[in-house]
Design a protein that fits this description.
The protein contains 14 helices and 11 strands. With about 325 residues, it is an alpha/beta fold. The strands form 2 sheets. The chain has an 8-stranded parallel beta barrel, surrounded by 6 helices. It has a two-stranded antiparallel sheet with strand order 1-2. Helix 1 runs antiparallel to helix 11. It is globular and about 55 Å long.
C-alpha cells in the first residue's frame, strides 16, 4: 500500500483517487474520459485546446464535440494552450462556462509545429511571458476555479533551460496555482529516451505542500505505483499507457489497495467496452464522423487482443459501419 495514494484537493475541487487520464490530442475526448472514469480514473484532463479555437468555435455541433462536459465527467480539467494572455483569458472563461472544473495551462507540448508557433513547450524559454500569462489567467478566473500548470523539465538540458524552468515554477507558485504536472522529458526529447523521474522528485521536494502530478513512462499499473514510490508525487497522469487500455485504472486501484493484479479483460469484456466507446462517440461526433474517429481507437484497442497485429489491420481496413460490426463479430467472440 502506498501512502501517497490519498485523495487530493485542488482549490475547491475534490479528487478521490490521485490518478488521472492525461490530456492527449486526439484521444482525451469526452467518450474516452467517461470510460476512463468508469474504470477508476479519479480525474481527467481534456485534450489540449488552442485558445483561438475555443474563442472562435460556434455554439453548435462543433463546439459540443470539443467542449463537452457531462455529469459522469467530473472532476475534469480543460487544458489550454496559447502564446499570449489576450486570447487565453476569454478562452478560459468560455471553458469555465462550459462546465470544466479546472483550467490547466500547457507549457509542455513538444510537437514541432506547436513549438514553432511559440506555444506549448516554447513557453519554457520565456519565463517573463509565461508568468504574465499565469497572472492574467489567475486574475480573470473566478476564485472557485483552480488554475494548474503542465510543464516539461525544460526546453533542453542546458543550465539556462533549467533556470527558466524554476523561474516559471516559482512564479506560478507565488501566483497560487493549485497544482503542477511535471513531465520528466525535455521539449527537445519529444517522446524519445527516458523520462527523468529524478527531476520530478526534485520538483516535488522543492514545492512543499502544493500537489505535484508526475508524468512520463507510465505504461503499466506497476509503473504508476513505482513513480509514486520513487518521486513522492501526490498524483500521476497516465497518457499513452491508457490509450486503448482503460483497464489500467482498475489495475492501479487494485494494486494500490493491496489486492492482486486483476486478470486481463476477456474478449467479451473488450468488446463491451469498444461497443460502449462507439456509442458514446456517435453521440459526440454524429453518425457521419464516428467511424473515422473510432477506427483510430479500434487500432489502439487491438493491442489488448491476443492476435493484436491481425486485429489492428482489420480495424484499419474498416470503411463502413457494417464492417465495424463484422470485425467485432469475427475477432471479439465472447
Amino acid at each position: 500500500m502506498f501512502p501517497n495514494l490519498a485523495p487530493l484537493v485542488l482549490g475547491t475541487v475534490q479528487i478521490d483517487f490521485p490518478v488521472a487520464l492525461a490530456a492527449m490530442s486526439g484521444y482525451s475526448d469526452w467518450p474516452t474520459r467517461v470510460i476512463a472514469r468508469r474504470f477508476g480514473a479519479g480525474y481527467s484532463i481534456c485534450e489540449v485546446l488552442l485558445d483561438q479555437f475555443v474563442v472562435n468555435v460556434t455554439k453548435g455541433r462543433k463546439a459540443t464535440r470539443w467542449i463537452r462536459v457531462e455529469d459522469g465527467d467530473h472532476p475534469v480539467a480543460a487544458q489550454l494552450m496559447g502564446s499570449a494572455a489576450e486570447p487565453l483569458v476569454p478562452a478560459a472563461l468560455k471553458l469555465v462556462e462550459a462546465g470544466f472544473d479546472v483550467i490547466d495551462v500547457n507549457f509542455g507540448c513538444p510537437v514541432r509545429k506547436v513549438v514553432g508557433k511559440c506555444r506549448g513547450g516554447w513557453m519554457l524559454s520565456q519565463p517573463d511571458k509565461a508568468r504574465e500569462i499565469l497572472a492574467r489567467l489567475r486574475d480573470a478566473l473566478p476564485p472557485r476555479i483552480p488554475l494548474t500548470l503542465k510543464m516539461r523539465r525544460g526546453l533542453d538540458d542546458s543550465p539556462q533551460s533549467r533556470d527558466h524552468f524554476f523561474a516559471i515554477l516559482e512564479g506560478a507558485l507565488a501566483l497560487g496555482v493549485a497544482a503542477v504536472t511535471i513531465h520528466g522529458r525535455t521539449v527537445r526529447q519529444r517522446y524519445e529516451g527516458r523520462s527523468s523521474w529524478e527531476f520530478v522528485r526534485e520538483v516535488k521536494s522543492r514545492v512543499g505542500a502544493v500537489p505535484v502530478f508526475g508524468s512520463g513512462d507510465l505504461f503499466t499499473a506497476s509503473d504508476c505505483l513505482a513513480m509514486f514510490a520513487a518521486t513522492g508525487v501526490d498524483g500521476i497522469t497516465v497518457a499513452r499507457g491508457a490509450i486503448g487500455n482503460p483497464w489500467i485504472f482498475r489495475e492501479i486501484r487494485a494494486l494500490a489497495s493491496g489486492q492482486p493484479l486483476p486478470p486481463p479483460p476477456s474478449l467479451g469484456e473488450q468488446r463491451t467496452v469498444i461497443e460502449e466507446h462507439y456509442r458514446l462517440a456517435e453521440i459526440n461526433y454524429g453518425s457521419r464522423r464516428v467511424l473515422n474517429v473510432m477506427r483510430n481507437f479500434g487500432i489502439k484497442y487491438a493491442r489488448m487482443h491476443p492476435q493484436a497485429e491481425a486485429v489492428r489491420d482489420a480495424f484499419a481496413a474498416i470503411r463502413h459501419p457494417r464492417q465495424w460490426k463484422e470485425t467485432l463479430d469475427r475477432w471479439y467472440r465472447a
